[in-house]
Design goal:
The chain is an alpha+beta fold and about 130 residues long. The protein contains 2 helices and 6 strands, in the order βββαβαββ. About 30% of the residues are buried.
Length: about 130
Amino acid sequence: MKIRSIDAPEVQAPKGGYAGLCEVTGAQRLAFVSGQIPAHVDGSVPADFLAQARLAWANVEAQLRAAGMTLDNLVKVTTFLSDRQYNLQNRQVRQEVLGSRTPALTVIITGIFDSAWLLEIEAIAAA
């Protein structure tokens, strides 16, 4: 399987470490990761955004591991933020976690199911 990030030259380049398009060839499996919330297995939720973001990403990684995949398999990520004020912190943590990986990405500002959650992350992976 090969994952290739592509950015059309006639479209403004994405900022923040993601691709405008992510092409997958030769994949045999797809995994759809439901929205991962910033909650520990005991239900506790960190108070600050950075801790919540790192935990939500850790939960995404745990789900991928359960399917025998890693962050290298990500092809699409959607992040739901409870408030626009978290945009830069969200980008910071995403870049820490993803490093040089550049899946397709969307960030949506929206109300979230539980008011204690400041974000939720869903993903699609291929292997």
